[in-house]
Design goal:
This protein has four helices and no strands. With about 140 residues, it is mainly alpha-helical. The protein is elongated and about 60 Å long. Helix 1 runs antiparallel to helix 4 and helix 3 packs antiparallel against helix 4 (about 110-140). It has helices spanning about 15-45, 50-80, 80-105, 110-140.
Amino acid sequence: MSFTGRSAAVLSSVPLQMLFFLNGVYYGFYFLATLLMVIYKSQVLSYPDGNLALDLALLFIMAILEAIRLYLGVRGNLKEEEVSVGISLALTVGSMLLSVYFVVWQTYVLRADVIVGAVLLIIYGLEAILDVTAIAAFASAYA
C-alpha cells in the first residue's frame, strides 16, 4: 500500500502537544477562578444591569470555544493536519480577545483577574507561535 504525499518522518510537535495539555489544565483553573471572582464581585460590588449576565455569558462562550480549540489543535497536531491546526490558531485569536476582555474591559477588574489572565495570554501566545511552526512543517512536508 502506498501513501502519496506523506513522509515517514513524524512531524507532530511535542512542545505544542505539551502546551495544549498545560493549557487544558490551566484553563480549568482559570475558568473556576474567574467564575468565583465574578460571583464574589456580584456579591460585594454593585454590578450595573445586564453586565453580570454579559460577563457570565462571555465566560461560558469562552469555555466552549476553548474546548473546541483544544480538541482541534490536539487532533490536528497528532494527525499532522494543517487545516485543523489552522482552525485552532484562528480560534486562539478569539480566545485571546475574550481573555483581554476579562483582563481589561470587564465591569470590575481585580488584581487576581489580571494575574490569571496574563498567564493565560502568555500560554496563548506560545501556542500561536508553535501552531504557526507546526503548520509550516506540515505544509512543507506534504506540499
